[in-house]
Write a structure and sequence with these properties.
Shape: elongated
Distance between the termini: 35 Å
Helix content: 40-55%
Radius of gyration: 20 Å
Number of helices: 5
Largest sheet: 3 strands, mixed
Number of strands: 7
Length: 174
């Protein structure tokens, strides 16, 4: 069931979904189909879409709860994309120390999402969100690039290393 919620917002109710993968596949297909140019007499026009998903009963059992969760999801996904694209993310370097010598051997790169007026958003929230929204390859590329730049700035002529966590989704991205 598809219904106009108001303005440029629509709600889709999908019953009897067998898996999250089915939801993601449906969402990706819908966004990709909406991106396809429409030929007008004045030339092609393209539109875009953002999707927020909520699942009953995990995210709520009432229409209000489910709509609120979907709205938060789409807002966070858009904000995360903007943060990655505008270099609004931070990268923390956590020192790695050799147990036997106590010497610094390198760093682990940890992505952080600071907020101007609030506490930072936890990686436990934004990493799964990036994976669900297809932003993980973009975030992963930024982390790899920034980690290499930071290590080069800190210790250009050393044998220090930087460890970066990589998502399976990054490995699947050509």
């Amino acid at each position: 069931v598809c219904a106009r919620w108001g303005g440029d917002e629509f709600v889709i109710l999908q019953r009897y979904v067998s898996s999250r993968e089915e939801i993601y596949r449906f969402s990706d297909d819908l966004v990709n189909k909406l991106k396809m140019p429409i030929e007008l007499s004045s030339g092609p026009v393209s539109i875009g879409a953002s999707i927020g998903v909520s699942v009953c009963p995990e995210h709520g059992t009432t229409a209000e709860e489910l709509l609120e969760h979907a709205d938060i999801a789409v807002y966070l996904a858009q904000a995360l994309r903007n943060a990655i694209e505008s270099q609004g993310m931070d990268l923390a370097l956590q020192p790695l120390i050799a147990m036997n010598t106590g010497k610094l051997t390198g760093f682990e790169a940890l992505a952080r999402w600071p907020q101007t007026d609030n506490a930072p958003i936890s990686p436990g929230v934004f990493i799964p969100l990036a994976e669900e929204c297809g932003l993980m390859p973009m975030l992963g590329r930024w982390v790899l690039q920034r980690a290499c730049e930071m290590l080069q700035d800190i210790a250009p002529d050393s044998d220090l290393r930087v460890a970066v966590n990589i998502s399976v989704l990054q490995l699947l991205d050509v």
